[in-house]
Design a protein that fits this description.
By secondary structure, the chain is an alpha/beta fold. It has two domains: 5-153, NAD(P)-binding Rossmann-like Domain (Rossmann fold); 186-416 and 440-468, 2-Layer Sandwich (Dihydrodipicolinate Reductase, domain 2), CATH 3.30.360.10. It has 13 helices and 17 strands. The chain has helices spanning 16-31, 51-59, 71-81, 93-106, 125-134, 160-171, 189-200, 204-207, 230-255, 264-276, 409-412, 421-430, 440-459, and strands spanning 5-11, 38-45, 83-87, 113-118, 148-153, 179-182, 213-222, 286-292, 294-296, 299-301, 319-324, 336-342, 348-355, 374-380, 384-392, 400-408, 465-468. The strands form three sheets. The protein has a nine-stranded mixed sheet. Strands 3-2-1-4-5-6 form a six-stranded parallel sheet, sandwiched between helices. A two-stranded antiparallel sheet has the order 9-10. Strand 9 (294-296) and strand 10 (299-301) form a beta hairpin. Helix 6 runs antiparallel to helix 13 and helix 10 runs parallel beside helix 13 (440-459). It is globular, with a radius of gyration of 24 Å. The structure holds NADP nicotinamide-adenine-dinucleotide phosphate. The site of NADP nicotinamide-adenine-dinucleotide phosphate has 18 residues, from helix 1.
Length: 475
């Protein structure tokens, strides 16, 4: 296998995702020596830039956090020297032939593998796949020394049917093994750590079931609203934006059975099995809300519907609380909730696992039973794991109260840089590590849980309940 030559094509290179996330992550990997020796980076979009103008555009967001000091300028120049730009229309195979010519000029194209990163709106996924296919740019999945892989980012459709159509369009050009559906949440350090917490610590294995766990809550909040960027969000809403994908994936990692090994397909098999045992949601399982005007930290924020990029009568939920039921032996009877809100009091993403309390505990004889233990996995900000335990207050009396065993990453791992999720995920694509990418059957199972209730909310024009911006929604 030739591991030295790689061409990475970023489609939609003029956009936000490419500039803020993809090129900075590629640069970080480049600085750390994780990319193949002869890696070349090709931006493609409709906007017209010279190579130099394109390099200037991406430079502002490159950071040297892995290589502080003098090597930074040199590293940056070396990286930028490998970046090139081609403009063209997404539906034109001629434009992609021009890209091929550029690749031939700047790289060892007959030996290089090809990674196509789709940093474009999802409406263009099928069109671009067809143009890339028609222009003959796609090599087979893993043929001899070279491969072609494609990375797409959610939203993968709006419901089961549109997601299936997207899959069909892509599969006309790429086989499933070549498609990497990125859910950038799965690249986050603490989300990757869920498996380690659960399966590397023997103490948790026997406890991880309905007999010991009373409930699981997954909470996600942002203390900002749409702030003039409501177009995409207003079309999708909070359930499609974060719940059906990021937060459901977290739930699957928390609740799945132990995989037979760390192999990607063993992990994904377990996630699919778990998703298929979740009951399809009904309207009774879902509460929706929308933020009205409010004040946060002295800042007045207008109501969601008053944002100039949102329709005055928008019914799009900015908050939801979803109650999920897992119908299997491990979890029967345990409520799993996912709460997610924009415009709430704080930016927060965490998993709370509450264990059962017992009213026959011997300490109940002191007048009050000990409160339940709770394990909290904080995904962001301030990554950490906290276990609430009951402890005796020092003193002559038998007073107990809850204390926190605290593994805060900013104290425990002061020296370590937590990588950006995109860095981990792009490296996984290059290394053909698929555990953190969504397989087709996983995507189908996720949509099957949410599609009926999403259709119900839209067809019946269900009014979201209002909550003032900067409060806790209906958490
Ligand atoms: N931004 C993020 O942080 C983020 C996070 C998670 C997921 N995503 C997903 O990643 C994708 C890209 O995000 P983005 O924020 O970079 O998107 P974007 O800025 O809206 O679009 C990227 C580029 O695509 C081209 N484009 C946009 N709309 C088009 C249209 N209607 N027809 C043809 N070309 C169009 C534009 O380039 P040209 O006009 O030059 O061709 C634009 O610069 C989206 O699917 C988004 O949902 C983004």
């Amino acid at each position: 296998m030739n591991n030295n030559d790689l061409n990475i094509v970023v489609l939609g290179a003029s956009g936000d995702l490419a500039r803020k996330k993809i090129f900075p992550s590629l640069f970080s990997l480049f600085c750390q020596g994780f990319l193949p020796k002869n890696s070349k980076f090709f931006g493609f979009s409709r906007s017209k830039y010279s190579h130099e103008e394109f390099r200037e555009k991406i430079t502002a967001d490159l950071t040297c956090r892995y290589t502080p000091g003098e090597s930074c300028a040199e590293n940056m120049q070396n990286f930028l020297d490998c970046c090139f730009y081609q403009n063209g229309n997404y539906d034109s195979s001629d434009a992609f032939l021009n890209l091929y010519e550029l690749m031939s000029e700047k790289s060892n194209v007959s030996k290089a593998s090809r990674l196509f990163y789709y940093a474009i709106p999802p409406s263009l996924f099928g069109v671009v796949a067809k143009s890339i296919g028609d222009s003959g740019l796609v090599l087979c999945g893993s043929c001899g020394e070279q491969w072609s892989r494609t990375v797409i980012e959610k939203p993968f459709g709006r419901d089961r049917a549109s997601s299936d159509r997207l899959t069909e369009e892509l599969s006309a050009v790429f086989i499933e093994e070549q498609i990497y559906r990125i859910d950038h949440y799965l690249g986050k350090e603490m989300v990757q750590n869920i498996q380690v917490t659960r399966f590397a610590n023997e103490i948790f294995k026997p406890l991880w079931r309905a007999q010991h766990i009373a409930r699981v809550d997954i909470v996600w909040g942002e203390d900002i609203g749409v702030e003039g960027r409501g177009g995409y969000f207003d079309d999708y809403g909070i359930i499609r934006d974060v719940v059906q994908n990021h937060l459901l994936q977290i739930l699957a990692l928390v609740a799945m059975d132990e995989p037979a090994s760390l192999a990607a397909n063993h992990i994904r098999d377990q996630k699919v099995k778990l998703l298929r045992s979740i009951k399809v949601l009904t309207p009774e399982d879902v509460v929706i809300g929308q933020y009205s005007a409010g004040v946060l930290n002295g800042r007045k924020v207008e109501a969601y519907r008053d944002d100039p990029t949102v329709a005055d009568d928008s019914l799009t939920p900015t908050f939801t609380k979803v109650q999920l039921t897992i119908d299997n032996d491990r979890w029967r009877g345990v409520p799993f909730t996912i709460s997610a809100g924009k415009g709430v009091a704080e930016k927060l993403s965490e998993i709370r696992i509450k264990f059962h309390a017992s009213d026959s505990n011997i300490f109940c004889s002191t007048g009050a039973c000990p409160p339940p233990n709770e394990l909290i996995i904080r995904i962001q900000p301030n990554e950490g794991i906290h276990l609430n335990i009951v402890n005796k207050k020092p003193g002559v009396k038998m007073d107990f109260h809850t204390e926190k065993l605290d593994l805060s990453y900013n104290k425990a791992y002061k020296e370590n840089i937590i990588p950006d999720a995109y860095e981990s995920l792009i490296l996984d694509v290059i290394r053909e590590e698929k555990a953190l990418f969504i397989r087709k059957d996983e995507l189908e199972a996720a949509w099957d849980i949410f599609t009926p209730v999403l259709h119900y909310l839209e067809e019946n024009k269900v009014e979201p309940k209002m909550y003032p911006f900067g409060t806790n929604g209906m958490m």
